[in-house]
Specification:
Elements lengths: L7 E5 L21 H14 L3 E4 L9 H8 L7 E7 L5 H15 L3 E6 L10 H19 L4 E4 L4 E4 L14 E3 L4 H10 L2 E4 L4 H16 L6 E10 L3 H11 L5 H10 L6 H11 L5 E3 L2 E2 L12 E4 L1 H13 L4 E5 L3 H11 L12
Parallel strand pairs: 1-2, 1-13, 2-3, 3-4, 4-7, 7-8, 8-9, 9-12, 9-13
Antiparallel strand pairs: 5-6, 10-11, 11-12
Helix pairs in contact: 1-11, 3-4, 4-5, 5-6
Length: about 350
């Protein structure tokens, strides 16, 4: 064990049709369904993970809020990090849904806020994030049990909080990410955890420093999360071979189509993932950070690849830069969750993130 403070280790349940044996090659057995995604979550609890991200996408997969409510009574210890797409939500109703699911979980719910569009509608980045800031304020007010008198550009609401409350009586932790100026400001003023996608150690250091500075100007502090894929095997050669195998049947045109299908395919964060990939001569942006996975995936586009010692060292390097929580995934998700749980998880001091 290191002398670093404990961190939260989360896995990922592929609610958005994002599970493969070979990237870019659809597999009916791995397509998002209640049964498949349920099994990943139950396995994560058994394996000892602290939390699990339930992603959300309008066009792909199954509904996240409905899934969270369905899985909640089946869990005894695991936390849920439920993604919610603000563009698709009416905040007072969402507050009631969040409080209800938190009750079903015994107080173990956290929320990943996504600054999404409404399907069929397109907002520019600045107003979209302004809408998200309003929504986060509304949610926090109502879930803290306070009456709301809100006169904003997107919502004008005067309403009492819902009768149902979270177990704590306060708003669950809000995880939020984005690289644009508007996104960073939204996180600094409203989020509890700034969740970033893969990047180099130097870039992570700069992002953490910037967000800490922005939050301090508002008298706030942030925790920091890091979302990344992982490929761990007993030797580095085996891990690199497993990474190469993932791409061995990928058609470049199909990979491009997958990337462009995402509703956030033009965001600053996605552009940064592309920069990492395009600037890596051998597919590695730096030691053990492989960008090939982004050839068939919008968003989180890199993986930590190596033997157990290398993967552990990489995670600890990020922890030393201020990362408090990791959201990990791998392909196929169930198999890679088992490998990480056996080879690395027991060697990290970890537990649910305390806000």
């Amino acid at each position: 064990m290191s002398d670093l403070p404990p961190c939260e280790i989360s896995w990922f349940s592929a609610l958005c049709d994002d599970d493969y044996e070979f990237l870019g090659v659809p597999d009916a057995a791995l397509k998002s369904s209640w049964e498949h995604c349920r099994d990943i979550v139950v396995q994560a609890e058994t394996a000892g993970y602290d939390n699990i991200l339930l992603p959300s996408g309008y066009a792909l997969g199954i509904d996240t809020t409905a899934f969270a409510a369905g899985i909640a009574p089946m869990l005894k210890r695991l936390r849920l990090l439920m993604a919610v797409r603000i563009g698709e939500s009416w905040p007072p109703q969402l507050a009631r849904q969040i409080a209800t699911i938190d009750r079903m979980l015994g107080g173990r719910l956290a929320i990943n806020i996504i600054s999404s569009d409404l399907p069929g509608e397109k907002l520019e980045s600045a107003p979209r994030y302004a809408r998200t800031v309003e929504a986060m304020h509304i949610l926090r007010t109502l879930l803290d049990g306070k009456p709301l008198d809100h006169d904003g550009a997107f919502w004008k609401l005067k309403v009492d909080p819902p009768r149902v409350t979270t177990v704590s009586g306060t708003c669950p932790a809000l995880y939020f990410g984005g690289l644009s100026e508007a996104a960073r400001d939204a996180a600094a003023t409203n989020a509890d955890v700034y969740l970033m996608w893969p990047d180099t150690i130097d870039a992570v250091r700069a992002i953490v420093a910037d967000l800490r500075s922005r939050a301090a100007k508002h008298g706030r502090t942030l925790k920091f999360g890091y979302r990344v894929h992982v490929v761990v095997r007993e030797s580095e050669a085996e891990a690199r071979a497993a990474a190469d195998r993932l791409l061995s049947k990928l058609d470049d045109a199909e990979g491009r189509a997958i990337r462009e299908l995402s509703l956030d395919s033009q965001s600053a964060g996605v552009r940064r993932q592309a920069e990492l990939r395009e600037g890596s001569d051998d597919g590695y942006a730096e030691a053990n950070l492989w960008t090939g996975i982004g050839r068939a995936r919008s968003g989180c586009g890199a993986a930590i690849v190596g033997d157990p010692d290398q993967v552990l060292a990489k995670l600890n390097a990020y922890r030393a830069e201020g990362i408090n929580a990791f959201v990990l995934s791998g392909y196929p998700h169930a198999a890679e969750a088992d490998l990480f749980a056996r080879h690395v998880l027991p060697r990290i001091e970890h537990g649910p993130l305390v806000i």
